[in-house]
Amino acid sequence: MREPSQTSRGKVFAARALKYGITLAIVGAAAFLLHRYIAKMAWHDVRDALTRIPHWHVIGSIGAALTSWACLTAYDVFAVETVVPGKVSMKMKIFSGATTHAICNALGFHAITGTALRYRMLSTQGVRAADVARVVGLVGFAVGMGFAAVTCIALVLEPSIANEWGRWLGMGLVVAFVLLLHWLAGKHDELKVWKFSTPVPSARSAAAQIVFGVIEMVGAILTMYLLLPPEIAGSFLDFAPIYVGAVLAGIISNTPGGIGAFEALTLAAFPQEQRAQVLAALLAYRVIYGFGPFILASIALGSFEVRRRARKMA
Fold first, then answer.
1. Residues 79-135 pLDDT 10s
2. Within 10 Å of residue 27's Cβ, how many Cβ atoms?
3. The dihedral of CA 42, 228, 149, 102: what is its sign?
């Protein structure tokens, strides 16, 4: 096997240095902004804002979070059935998807954590490591389509968020989706990228995933939106770009669950006099959409491991 050249190693090192540099810059900026914003708040104002969130808003937020998690789980069901059709029971597909998304959302590092967790569960039904990697890739692609679909709708309905080019960009995304579905409708059942190959969903399955993606993102946005006072949140279409931008900042930051970057960008979108109420909504959102599902999924995964070991010992 030929050793990598000095130039190749230099390029890899430069790429990694750039990646870590960007991550550190985002995390540093987020930490600076959070410190600056929170230092100007009185914690009793945040506490009072938490107690003023209407109970039915909290119930609605929990319902929206459950809807979002159900759609995320559906991504795994589609992906597993595409990669290893008929090999995994529906119960295991749902369990693997739900627990993996809940834990990964809290811990971050989806590619590593998600692959390890899915392999731990799916391997019990004979799924190989290479196929688990393919499942992870298809799930990531589905999540990306969901982001793109919501962005497309926002740009078409509210082009002012990207100046006069907003509607044109949105229509460009529509064309991209049509071309993707047209390609999948042809005789394409596999995608090859260098040495990696993976089955691809049918056009009908991809279209269903795009719909699920829109529902999933709307549910996630509503989870946070309902926790904000109406006079602060504004219209749903006004708040949606703030949420999507904050999520993307969290993903780029590589922090667990995007913590820090997500909060900093969200707080930055509102004036100082409203930030105590926004921070209260963020804390409630973290419990409903992050901490709560993580605890439930961890308990479920622990029970799965106990039963698995008990069966081996029997």
1. 999 889 889 999 999 999 999 999 988 887 777 888 999 999 999 998 999 899 889
2. 17
3. positive
